Amino acid sequence: MDPDQPTPELLLRAYCAGAFPMAEPGGAIHWYSPDPRAVLPLDGLHVPKSLQRKLKQRPFEMCTDRAFEAVMRACAEARPDRPDTWIDERLIEAYVGLYEQGCAHSVEAWLDGQLVGGLYGVHVGGAFFGESMFSRPEAGGRDASKICLVYLVEALRRGGFGLLDTQFWTPHLGRLGCVEIPREDYLRGLGEALESPGRWPERLPEPKGFD
């Protein structure tokens, strides 16, 4: 297989081995297995009070897998702090292929019929590999990506998942409970999660504790 022309099959093999791809703008696709690795413990999500208040308001229509490719393309859009993207057409084609096989999913926030936030990732066994997220505050989607993450964690908890991989630690994810662990520990946990059946929901469950 050509690592610069990823297929759904190659992606699955890579994730099961602890690696993931990122495209160099206009160039090669590189494969990463960072040490340390960032994860969000499913019992360690921290929801700030301001976000709790917003969750109670239920500002968005939340759904899954309605517009997977649109979520990917929104995640790939240039931003003032990130003019280049690591998501190119090769990766979009490969991940859409995984989605069509039921091995990739999106969590989406809609407002008045418009997609204003979302995230996507890969699902193998009881492991979910979070790839990217976005929000469109100019369209009313302020905090939409954070709310999508809360819904994702609830779906994974109820579906019997054992691992939420976030790849790299960022201050934004750290405030929500993301931690770094040694790659050796990550690979051990990955192996255990891959052996367990994770069930992705047809409809997103409401997060507990915010009614």
Structure description:
The protein has helices spanning 8-16, 49-57, 68-76, 89-100, 144-158, 171-175, 183-194, and strands at residues 20-23, 29-32, 37-39, 61-64, 104-111, 114-124, 127-135, 163-167, 179-181. The protein is globular and about 45 Å long. Strands 4-5-6-7-8-3-9 form a seven-stranded mixed beta sheet, sandwiched between helices. The chain starts with 7 loop residues before the first helix and ends in a 17-residue tail after the last helix. The protein has one domain: Leucyl/phenylalanyl-tRNA-protein transferase, C-terminal domain (Aminopeptidase, 3-Layer(aba) Sandwich). A hairpin with a 5-residue loop joins β1 (20-23) and β2 (29-32). It is of the alpha+beta class. Helices cover 34% and strands 24% of the residues.
Please count the beta strands (DSSP E, at least 2 residues each): 9
What structural category characterises the helix and strand content? alpha+beta
Low-confidence runs (pLDDT<50, min 5 residues)? none
| Portion of residues within helices | 25-40%
Radius of gyration: 16 Å
Oligomerization status of the protein chains: single chain
Would you identify the CATH H-level superfamily? Leucyl/phenylalanyl-tRNA-protein transferase, C-terminal domain
Order of strands, widest sheet = 4-5-6-7-8-3-9
